[in-house]
Design brief:
The complex is a heterodimer of chains A (293) and B (346). Chain A has helices spanning 2-12, 17-50, 61-101, 105-114, 123-134, 139-146, 161-185, 189-198, 202-231, 234-239, 247-258, 261-292. With 293 residues, chain A is mainly alpha-helical. Chain A folds into 2 domains: 1-50, no CATH class; 60-292, MetI-like fold (Orthogonal Bundle), CATH 1.10.3720. In chain A, helix 2 crosses helix 12 (261-292) and helix 5 crosses helix 7. The longest helix of chain A is centred in the first third of the chain and has 41 residues, at 61-101. The relative contact order of chain A is 0.12. Chain B is an alpha+beta fold and 346 residues long. Chain B folds into 2 domains: 6-230, Rossmann fold (3-Layer(aba) Sandwich), CATH 3.40.50.300; 261-325, Nucleic acid-binding proteins (OB fold (Dihydrolipoamide Acetyltransferase, E2P), Beta Barrel). Helix content of chain B is 26%, strand content 31%. Chain B contains 9 helices and 18 strands. In chain B, the strands form 4 sheets. Chain B has a 6-stranded mixed β-sheet with strand order 6-7-8-3-9-10, with helices on both faces. A 5-stranded antiparallel β-sheet of chain B has the order 13-17-14-15-16, with no helix packed on it. In chain B, strands 2-1-4-5 form a 4-stranded antiparallel β-sheet, covered by helices on one side. In chain B, a hairpin with a 2-residue loop joins strand 4 (59-64) and strand 5 (67-68). In chain B, helix 2 crosses helix 3 (109-122) and helix 2 (94-104) runs parallel beside helix 4 (138-150). Chain B is elongated and about 75 Å long. Chain B starts with 5 loop residues before the first strand and ends with a helix. The relative contact order of chain B is 0.12. The complex binds adenosine-5'-triphosphate and magnesium ion. Chain A: It is a multi-pass membrane protein. Chain A: Its main location: membrane. Chain A: It is found in: Cell membrane. Chain A: Residues 74-282 form the ABC transmembrane type-1 domain.
Chain lengths: 293, 346
């Protein structure tokens, strides 16, 4: 009854489908416009600017100069980001693993409560804290000297690549842990118990049973961290004074002192490429996993 | 590793200040098949988990063979547990699932491969090595989970309702398959079930639990014919209880109550000597496949009996139970030992 009447209806008024499409369009439009205007357009513009000279002619000049001027900074960025990601992954796995497999209930509860705090501190403040903590006469060295663990003469500044790595890790570990611990908690408890029953200790359980099942969340967390580290300006500006430094600092330098958008965009191009490659690798991995599952 | 005896001594478990298991004593002889039977929530799973090492004891001792395993972590106990949900690892193939316990024991790859293939043959799943476990049927998963437990030749096999997720037909066939496998390997096995039929069919010894305590440990026949008390009897299908009358058979003259099963009570048959009889009004008549189940309203209780043909509702009928089918209970609802019968007859 109902189907036939609705068929008749749609046959009689074929153009009734039209308003529905436009209603859908209407709903999508704000989001679409925002993405186009605020994201796609600037992205395209910056890509184009990277390949145009001041007269508007096409050129690869900016890219070549960006590489020759800032090649070291690019390598430095890649290095710092890679070491940071490795550190972030290691610490996040350790914390989430303990949250899921830990045998001391009060320690697990305390850790669960503690690890999230850095999440609520912005990058600028993090940079400031790290600065006063890691400097030559900063808190870390003071404590080490006071407690007699280190001679005051051997105190050195950590405000270089090490400071960057530590700061990035401090800021990003809680975020990645949040994702990873959630995914690990979702792993069926009996999978862990079955493994332990089969003879696996906690560590093997973590790396052979829990982590493989939670890995997609780890990858997502690391890729988002990569993007965050490549885009943050405050931390490298505050922690590193000389050369080489992160590309964001160099881009800002290029724009504020020279008004040179061409080279700044060429540097940006490199950041895009780096994240794009990582995202592509991740997609390949997940697609292959889904194909075999 | 050869099969071993299991001994539980005063095993007590508290979870969140609540006593879940209360002073459990149990001896399981090597190579035997023991069923833990009892109503939902009585602590069967908890007991199994305590043996496997997942639930800490607040008192007591668990021994496997000569050694105490009470304080060992689960991975050092070498028990093999099959989980109710099977708990196959979804990121590993069938072969990897079976091979993981061997890998943990450092068995070389070639040897692993050979033993996985042999186990799959044994489970009648030959050639399934590279299948994803997510693509298996319920019965196949169950068998892989069993294979994963057996592949290390464990001294003790623990099964938590391994058949309860399966449909009736697979269940029956797996029941005998499991029993055959257990016998051929001679492995000490403890299985949790709340299905009395399953326990009676499979077990050498049944442990009947209630509210965290062991009520009775007996062979299936003994448990079926001489349940420790009325509660156990009801759990084992003794649906009818009557208070003893003067004219009732002399068996267990000290009995206050008799219990009997519905299928032992007949309706409107020629009266025989040495039987218990009760008269009542028929209130219900249900076809059960083997015959008709009749509900009888007597003065003291509602009783159930079996008839070959339907009986009109509202009519009066006589229920008759042979003396041999009567289970005598004392005033405290405890079963009267068979010794009493002899004394009574003498
Ligand atoms: N982690 C826990 N914390 C607190 N109480 C628990 C916990 N696990 C189980 N219990 C309680 O212990 C009692 C026994 O549970 P258990 O799972 O052993 O029962 P069971 O005999 O296996 O029941 P079923 O036949 O329904 O599986 C239940 O009352 C349950 O509520
Ligand atoms: Mg249970």
């Amino acid at each position: 009854m109902t189907t036939s009447s609705s068929q008749v209806h749609s046959l009689a008024v074929p153009n009734r489908r039209l308003p529905r499409i436009s209603l859908g369009m209407l709903l999508v439009l704000p989001a679409l416009t925002a993405i186009l205007l605020l994201y796609a357009l600037p992205l395209a513009r910056s890509l184009v600017t990277a390949f145009r000279d001041s007269s508007g002619a096409w050129t690869t000049d900016h890219v070549v100069r960006a590489f020759s001027l800032y090649g070291r900074d690019m390598l430095f960025s890649v290095g710092v980001v890679s070491v940071s990601l490795a550190l972030i992954a290691a610490i996040s796995i350790a914390i989430s693993g303990y949250l899921v497999l830990g045998a001391t209930p009060w320690a697990v509860r305390l850790l669960r409560w503690l690890y999230r705090w850095p999440l609520f501190i912005p990058f600028v403040v993090t940079g400031q804290i790290a600065r006063s903590f890691l400097a030559t006469n900063g808190m870390m060295n003071n404590v080490l000297v006071e407690t007699g663990l280190m001679a005051s003469s051997s105190a050195q500044s950590f405000l270089d690549w090490r400071g960057l790595v530590l700061t990035f890790a401090w800021k990003q570990v809680p975020f990645v842990t949040l994702l990873l611990a959630g995914a690990m908690a979702a792993v069926d408890r009996s999978h862990i118990e079955a493994a332990r029953n089969a003879g696996a200790n906690r560590l093997r359980c973590l790396f052979e049973i829990v982590l493989p099942q939670a890995a997609p969340s780890l990858w997502v967390g690391l890729i988002l961290s990569l993007v965050a580290m490549l885009s943050v300006l405050s931390v490298p500006m505050m922690l590193i004074s000389g050369n080489p430094t992160m590309m964001t600092a160099m881009m800002a330098h290029r724009i504020t002192y020279y008004g040179d958008y061409g080279i700044a965009n060429a540097l940006g191009l490199f950041s895009y490429a780096l994240t794009a490659v990582t995202a592509w690798v991740y997609l390949r991995l997940t697609l292959r996993r889904e194909a075999t599952a | 590793m050869s099969t071993e005896a299991l001994t539980l001594n005063n095993v007590t478990v508290d979870l969140r200040q609540q006593r879940i298991l209360d002073g459990i004593h149990l001896d399981v002889s090597p190579g035997s098949f023991t069923c833990l039977l009892g109503p939902s929530g009585c602590g069967k799973t908890t007991l199994l988990r305590a043996i496997a090492g997942f639930t800490p004891l607040s008192q007591g001792d668990i021994r496997l063979g000569a050694r105490s395993i009470t304080h060992l972590p689960p991975e050092k106990r070498h028990t093999a547990m099959v989980f109710q949900s099977y708990a196959l690892w979804p990121h590993m193939s069938v072969g990897d699932n079976l091979g993981y316990p061997l890998k943990l024991r450092g068995v070389p790859r070639a040897e692993r491969k050979r033993r996985i293939a042999a186990m799959l043959e044994r489970l009648e799943l030959g050639g399934f090595e590279s299948r994803a476990v997510t693509q298996l049927s319920g019965g196949q998963r169950q068998r892989i989970a069993l294979g994963r437990a057996l592949i290390i030749d464990p001294p003790l096999l623990l099964l938590d309702e391994p058949l309860s997720n399966l449909d009736a037909a697979i269940r029956r066939s797996l029941r005998s398959e499991l029993r055959r496998l257990q016998k051929s390997l001679g492995i000490t096995t403890i299985m949790v079930t709340h299905d009395q039929e399953e326990a009676l069919q499979m077990a050498d010894q049944i442990v009947l639990m209630r509210a965290g305590k062991v009520i009775q440990v007996a062979a299936p026949q003994t448990l079926y014919q001489q349940p420790a008390d009325l509660g156990v009897a009801r759990f084992l299908g003794v649906d009818n209880t009557v208070t003893r009358h003067e004219q009732d058979p002399t068996v267990g003259s000290r009995a206050a109550t008799f219990g009997f099963r519905t299928r032992d009570a007949r309706i409107n048959e020629p009266l025989r000597p040495a039987t218990l009889t009760r008269k009542g009004r028929v209130t219900e008549c249900v076809y059960t496949g083997d015959g008709y189940q009749i509900s009888l309203d007597t003065n003291e209780a509602e009783l159930f009996a079996t008839a070959n043909s339907p009986i009109a509702l509202g009519t009066f009928a006589v229920l008759q139970v042979p003396e041999s089918a009567l289970i005598p209970f004392g005033p405290d609802d405890r079963h009267l030992p068979p010794l009493d019968r002899h004394e009574d007859i003498a």
